[in-house]
Design goal:
The chain is mostly helical. It has helices at about 5-25, 35-55, 85-105, 115-135, 140-145, 150-160, 165-195, 200-205, 210-230, 235-245, 245-270, 275-305, 310-330, 335-365, 370-375, 380-385, 385-400, 405-420, 430-455, 470-490, 495-505; strands at about 65-70, 75-85. The longest helix is centred in the C-terminal third of the chain and has 32 residues, at about 335-365.
């Protein structure tokens, strides 16, 4: 730990939110250097790493680097920011992925108008996401949550591929409709709880809020957050958005934006309305495992020969399944399950971010992400045509299927262990059924990802020449994600030691 006083850590957290906002405006100035956006994201990453180094790991369950000042007195809204063991990993992940995306854009500018506007939107997206994870006021959380809609819409609509306008509109409409419902739930919690301060509401654990009110609040908040997660059956905007989005848009959408939904469930719904969560948890678990199996079956259909499956679309549907494990862990209302959900959040961000980077690079090399066009009748043979590239793609695929020793394994395992012994008051037979369905989903996941590896990395395409292997900028963008995937897989305590005390504070009655 680097010893810094409270004022220094507060300044670091404020800088994390303010720097991207200033950078977003600065890159649009006349004669702004082309490297400015990358430099700003690099500075934000440095600040996030310094904040992590200064974080007191002896008390990760407490709010640190806290700023709390009045902002809109008439509404009781405060500019309340802070981090704990739950939000810190997500802040660092956001800073890292945005920096890697900026490196990618610097080396491979997106096709379309005004690269400076593209970078400006990336920075605005980063500011909104970081503010969401740092916010400790319900209305501030909502405003930050909504901020990301505008930049992501334009990233898809202006720089996306085929069908980008329709995909962008679906993304905005689904998310906005969900957000309207979520706002009603947040207002209900704040008014009934007597404050919009998330720390105070979490400490109260629903005291003073009736059971029926808690159920309504969790239902409203859950619908809004489930759209962003995305939870089956509110997921249908996601495949189109991923397929149409530029590479960096897909990376940030999967690696960061989806995490905002599950983070909100853990930060808001679980501690502030525990009775409502207990009532609705069995239904959340049922939707979660349905999403696991549904996403895997769709991916199997897309992966088979002759289906005309698109790799980006397949990875998008795989996210529905992977985020199902996150939702299942939350639904157990146990420390084991919720810690598994938080671990799976980070693992999914690392692995799926890497997969979308690789699929984008594959499209640059071959001009297509259509599996049938890539594989032909005998396989695309990436191992022979670009061995390091093919090897890294296979690594990301086996990490995504949950191979032990890599990051994808621990979150899914802990979520299922939580389902084996759900919280008191929940139906154990129901959750044992969910466990069995989720375990079956892991087999389906392995099946479609191994089919993808066989069709894309193996085989022999007569007449197909060599492809460019990994370039230096790709090493710079891909290597940190691969290294962290291995690190988190071999040393899961690096994350669990952060989240466990914070989860214990959110679930004081949980014994497992």
């Amino acid at each position: 730990m680097i010893p810094l006083n409270d004022a220094a850590t507060q300044a670091l957290l404020l800088a994390l939110v303010v720097l991207p906002l200033l950078g977003s405006a600065a890159v649009l100035l006349p004669r702004a250097p082309a490297w400015l956006g990358t430099a700003v994201t690099g500075a934000v990453l440095a600040a996030a790493l310094l904040l992590a180094a200064a974080f007191d790991h002896d008390r990760p369950g407490e709010i640190q680097a806290e700023t709390d000042v009045s902002w809109i007195p008439a509404l009781g809204v405060r500019l309340h920011l802070g981090v704990d063991g739950i939000s810190l990993p997500l802040i660092v992940l956001t800073a890292l992925l945005t920096f890697l995306c900026a490196l990618h854009v610097r080396a491979r500018p997106p096709a379309g108008p005004r690269p400076d506007a593209f970078v400006s939107l990336l920075l605005l997206l980063q500011a909104g996401t970081l503010a969401t994870f740092a916010a400790l006021d319900l209305l501030l959380f909502f405003l930050a949550f909504e901020t990301v809609l505008v930049p992501m819409y334009f990233l898809i609509a202006r720089w996306g591929g085929q069908g980008r306008e329709r995909a962008a509109w679906r993304f905005v409409l689904y998310t906005m409709l969900g957000s309207v419902v979520m706002l009603l739930g947040l207002l209900l919690l704040g008014v009934q709880g007597g404050t919009f301060d998330m720390v105070e509401l979490a400490r109260a654990h629903g005291d003073g809020i009736g059971h029926g009110t808690q159920v309504l609040a969790v239902l409203a908040i859950g619908i809004g957050l489930a759209v962003k997660t995305p939870m089956w059956p509110l997921h249908s905007w996601l495949p189109d958005a991923h397929t149409a989005a530029p590479t960096t848009g897909s990376v940030l959408l999967a690696g960061v934006l989806l995490k905002m939904g599950t983070y909100g469930l853990v930060r808001i719904a679980v501690p502030m309305a525990p009775d409502g969560m207990e009532t609705l948890a069995p239904y959340l678990g049922a939707f979660a495992v349905t999403g696991i199996v549904y996403g895997s079956l769709v991916c199997l259909a897309l992966a088979r020969a002759g289906a005309g499956g698109d790799l980006k679309r397949l990875i998008a549907y795989s996210s529905v399944g992977h985020m199902g494990f996150v939702l299942l862990g939350i639904a157990t209302l146990t420390r084991t399950g919720v810690n598994g959900a938080l671990f799976a959040n980070i693992a999914h961000g690392l692995i799926t971010g890497l997969l979308f980077f690789l699929v984008g690079a594959l499209k640059e090399r071959t001009g297509s992400t259509d599996l049938d066009a890539l594989a032909g009748t005998g396989g695309a043979a990436l191992y022979g045509r670009a061995p390091r590239f093919g090897g890294l793609l296979a690594f990301a695929a086996v990490a995504s299927l949950g191979l032990p020793g890599l990051a994808g394994f621990w979150g899914e395992l802990l979520a299922m262990l939580g389902a084996f012994h759900p919280a008191d008051g929940l139906s154990r037979p129901a959750f044992l059924t969910y466990l069995a369905v989720a375990a079956f989903g892991t087999l389906l996941t392995a099946a479609y990802l191994l089919i993808v590896v066989r069709r894309v990395c193996m085989g022999d395409r007569p007449g197909a020449g060599a492809l460019p292997d990994l370039r230096r900028v790709e090493y710079a963008a891909f290597a940190p994600l691969a290294a962290l995937t291995v690190l988190a897989g071999l040393w899961p305590a690096v994350l669990l030691d952060l989240t466990e005390p914070a989860v214990r504070a959110l679930l004081p009655g949980a014994v497992r």
